[in-house]
């Protein structure tokens, strides 16, 4: 609003109202282009980082396979492979909901505003205040019921499995560096911790608040 007022205050006397309207329209188009560009860039970078980080749980999985053929390491190695695959599944198929940008508006400071504490999400008819849900990626070859069950229980079960492997490693009394090598019981828990941290950092930014501010400015 302030930029629009300055622009109208210091325009040349020869400019017409139609030119002001065209200029305002160009400003709105620039804003839409900027928001779209930021959204596409954030989504693209998040996807690339996700693909790169998938190597972290998937690469050790192949190295655990030879340990399956030894009687003494078969069960721990199978448990470690399941944990690593669960970490990869969580990272790719269960992204966290978008994070809301830290933008202070008049509506967010108004205790009677229905949009306080919520982010804005585009729908088919415009914009509305809502907290964006976590969008689970579709999982091939399994039913929706199984995918929903995995989304609910895969993280706590994986955490319990990592704790169990770590306790077995402690019970065996091996050195810490041995437990952090392939075949050790600390590797799945270490990788799961990194995956959960990366999953939080890879949340896309919800730009609906910027869009709402742009339409509010347009309406005023």
From TrEMBL:
Region (Disordered): 113-137
Alphabetized UniProt keyword annotations: Membrane, Transmembrane, Transmembrane helix
Membrane-spanning intervals of the chain: 48-69, 75-94, 150-168, 180-198
Species of origin: Trematosphaeria pertusa
Protein name, entry field: Uncharacterized protein
